[in-house]
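We modelled the chain as a single entity of 230 amino acids. Its sequence is:
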Amino acid sequence: MSLLQQNYQNVSLEIQRVCRRVGRDPRTVRVIAVTKYVDIPTAEEALDLGIEHLGESRVQEAMRKWDQLGERGTWHFIGHLQRNKVKEVLARFQYIHSLDRFSLAEEIQKRAERVNKVIPCFVQINVAQEEQKHGLLRSEVEDFVRQVSTFSHLKLVGLMTMAPYTEEAEETRPVFQELKRIQRQIQKWDLTAAPVPHLSMGMSRDYQVAIEEGATWIRLGSTLVGRTQE
């Protein structure tokens, strides 16, 4: 058994264990293998093991992987997206997890309209208000969501956040709880193009806590596929 296969088995068992503890169906939690730091053979092995979802955050590196593996799997763009890279991303990725400003939404709308695609997007929210991280502030969310929900070629399928780095996973819980509260508030607005049923939150060090607080997508790098290149 390869290390990746062992990691995937361990992660799958841990998801089941956490879900049993909080009364969730493990099938409601989907794993994105964050392959941005690993080579093409490792990403290919992940697909061979049945890991369907791959996450990339660097457009040039992602294009190199996609050129070889793009016919397989579902690709998620999870990094900060520059407007001049939107065309390349829309041609290769099924989901964007980092919609964090109106100018980016406008560019996605323009490009998606040209190719007649509706793009599923996650609104990135900087819940912890860390200066070094991207994402909307809590006070900006309502205006942003209401405006973007009028765009014909975007669908807001969820919210995304990154918790602060901490050695104690339990310290991330308030961040995930707040994202869940924001989700519930948006859903009360009953916007057709912003149903936000999903929460993309939780990474290798804190995904168990994220699952307990409602994560439906977890983004796993080191604990799953490792980290073999920068």
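As a brief sanity check on the tokenised model: The first strand starts at residue 30 and ends at 34. Strands lie at 30-34, 53-56, 74-77, 95-99, 119-124, 154-160, 198-200, 217-220.
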